[in-house]
Amino acid sequence: MTKTTAQRPSWNEYFMGITELVAQRSTCLRRKVGAILVRDKRIIATGYNGAPTHISHCLDVGCLREQQGIPSGERHELCRGLHAEQNAIIQAANLGFSVEGAVLYCTNLPCAICAKMLINISLKEVYYREGYPDSLTSMMMSEAAIPLHQI
């Protein structure tokens, strides 16, 4: 009898696959983003972009940014949604989990606002799939010595 070894995904492939599944819960009309915080190869929290709890989603009421013609990467405050990274941090806080030293897997490179939050939680590193039109993120993450890995 021969033993067949199945090809297992690497840890990065595994966590990025989960991140992409999380992104499918997004209620954003422009971009579906998923994020997970991982420490010691264990998922601490997940997040996707969408409106706060008990607030109508853009799927239901339309996109304010689209209606006002705001380009991607600009005027983040003019959006009813939270970013996936923010929701992951909030979920961890609500559940009482420390995120210090965690690794972020995200479908997109975080924006500068999320980058500042991630720096302040002492994030270890970031793995992301696609870029984002915000050059300040790379500059701040570099200065904070948090590696960015596009995979």
Structure description:
By secondary structure, the protein is α/β, with parallel strands linked by helices. Helix content is 34%, strand content 19%. It contains six helices and five strands; from the N terminus they run αββαααβαβαβ. A five-stranded mixed β-sheet has the order 2-1-3-4-5. The chain is globular and about 55 Å long. It starts with 10 loop residues before the first helix and ends with a strand.
Biggest sheet: strands side by side, in what order? 2-1-3-4-5
Estimate the mean pLDDT confidence. 92
Low-confidence stretches: none
Radius of gyration: 16 Å
Class derived from helix and strand content:
alpha/beta
**Secondary structure: number of strands:** 5
Continuous helix count:
6
Largest sheet: 5 strands, mixed
Helix content: 25-40%
Question: What is the beta-strand fraction?
Answer: 15-25%
Q: Sketch the topology as an H/E string, one letter per element.
A: HEEHHHEHEHE
Between the first and last Cα atoms, what is the distance in angstroms? 38 Å
Shape: globular
Main traits of this protein?
five-stranded mixed β-sheet, alpha/beta, 151 residues, 6 helices
State the gist of this model:
The longest helix is centred in the first third of the chain and has 13 residues. 34% of the residues lie in helices and 19% in strands.
Secondary structure topology:
Blueprint: H1 11-23, E1 34-39, E2 42-48, H2 58-61, H3 64-67, H4 84-95, E3 103-108, H5 112-120, E4 125-130, H6 135-143, E5 148-150
